[in-house]
Amino acid sequence: MTRIAMLGLGAMGSELARVQLEGGASVAVWNRTPGKAPSLDALGATRAATPDDAIRDADLVVVCLSNDDATRAVLDPLATRLRGKTLVNLTNGTPAQARRMARWASDHDVRYVDGGIMATPEMIGAPHALVLYAGDAAAFEQHRDVLARFGAPRFVGDDPGRAALLDLALLTGMCGLFAGALQAIAMARHGGVAAEEFAGLLVPWLHAMNGLVPAIATSVDTRRFEGGSSLAMQVLALDNLIEASRESGTDTTLLTTMQGWMRACVDAGHGADDLGRLIDVIRPVS
Ligand code: FVH
């Protein structure tokens, strides 16, 4: 049986520990503030007083803390004691932080796997949870079955920064979705439509628009920006969205940013192109 050390029992770490215990693993848990996640005790967790105690007998050390600073503060003093173990870092971080952590691990003979959790705590262990992994492929394969208890495991490459890159890119997509949804809700509510009622219209609309993303992706890859609605038309249509937004006292930052991107493309002579062309403004071709 794999012996797991779980460092960090926040909202996410406590769920990660729970599914391992329910799956029959031996789990030693540590959290900076003692007494967190008391329900883990009944599931058979071993409470460790220090990170050092938690990792002592572990083959697999899983870390899920607030950020990279916290992770380094906890792991740095453990460097020599982690030697030969697999360290799976599920703390959210940047690709550069993941690569720096991988170098640190390599310097101390620690097998390093970086992870990006594409799930909320309630989703851990449920069918829709996805966890991206990158780094030491052999270490990942050795522990794949155990890691699968968190959610569907997907290894995305040897570059230890790749899971973080994809994680942050996916979260960026989510930010756009939620920001747009909240902006839309604010406008609808100003017009007397309750948020819940409006969500009944909004969700199927966004679902239908999601269906256009693969075509946009193809246009970006092939640099053939034709076939969709023209930017020349859309930049004018945005005037109405912005005006209505202003009339309702709603912040227009999101819409004016989008319109600015469109206008830059139109001014550069790409008014006949579709939305995919915005990629050149968001990330100019070098
Ligand atoms: N919760 C979510 O929806 C998202 C889903 C996707 C992945 N994220 C990332 O997961 C990391 C942990 O998030 P979390 O939800 O568990 O966060 P908290 O509930 O706030 O728990 C934070 C834990 O980190 C400990 N901690 C913070 N600073 C330190 C430190 N300097 N030394 C030691 N431990 C530290 C904190 O301990 P305590 O405050 O209880 O003593 C918690 O255990 C995160 O990267 C998300 O982006 C979650």
UniProtKB/TrEMBL annotation:
SUPFAM superfamilies: 6-phosphogluconate dehydrogenase C-terminal domain-like (SSF48179), NAD(P)-binding Rossmann-fold domains (SSF51735). Residues 159-283 form the NADPH-dependent reductive aminase-like C-terminal domain. Transmembrane segments: none annotated. Keywords: Oxidoreductase. This is Putative dehydrogenase. Residues 3-152 form the 6-phosphogluconate dehydrogenase NADP-binding domain. InterPro entries: 6-PGluconate_DH-like_C_sf, 6PGD_dom2, 6PGDH_NADP-bd, HIBADH-related, HIBADH-related_NP60_sf, NAD(P)-bd_dom_sf, RedAm-like_C. The keyword Cytoplasm does not apply. One of its GO terms (cellular component) is chromatin. The keyword Acyltransferase does not apply. GO terms for biological process: transcription elongation-coupled chromatin remodeling. One of its GO terms (molecular function) is oxidoreductase activity.
